[in-house]
Amino acid sequence: DAKTTQPPSMDCAEGRAANLPCNHSTISGNEYVYWYRQIHSQGPQYIIHGLKNNETNEMASLIITEDRKSSTLILPHATLRDTAVYYCIVRGSISSGSARQLTFGSGTQLTVLP
Amino acid sequence: DTAVSQTPKYLVTQMGNDKSIKCEQNLGHDTMYWYKQDSKKFLKIMFSYNNKELIINETVPNRFSPKSPDKAHLNLHINSLELGDSAVYFCASSLGRGGTQYFGPGTRLLVL
After folding, report:
1. Sign (positive/negative) of CA torsion B61, B6, B100, B30?
2. What local confidence, expressed as pLDDT, does residue A101 receive?
């Protein structure tokens, strides 16, 4: 699975959009981009994933560049409860049928400020 | 109606003891995982079972033995506990080997 690079920390004002970048320049064609977050002392929480199209759900939006070498997770209206470590993970094809663990990096510590 | 649950939440024990951690999921998933998060906060896969078959077995001391009695349960037994086993252990489950994984709340193990 491709390696990802994320900034170690970011701040965001409450109510503003939080834009978390991720570089995955060695991603291959059948690898997905997943985002998880871990709020202090809790288990990782799934946020969203995508292959090449932009995706949106009730939690966030995922914007993947056309060359797929980078992506941005957008939390449209950050709240204090969004303070967490956000992990960008590249993972092999879902349909491949092979075992696909998640390889976590060090993530981005997002702090939402009041 | 917890999706992935783990017991116990906290476990404090002496070196050399044997202990078990249990995981249960009610999502109807067929694949379950154990991850370890150490003091530096890195999360690493340890084991995975699909339909009670071991499919991932990372480089983990053989003091760690997973057991999956059925698709909804995955337990982790640890023999002869060592100080370095102190960590948070997370269970996860997914539908299929490549499905989205959902995590439990973790078991905080402290070996004294």
Report:
1. positive
2. 75
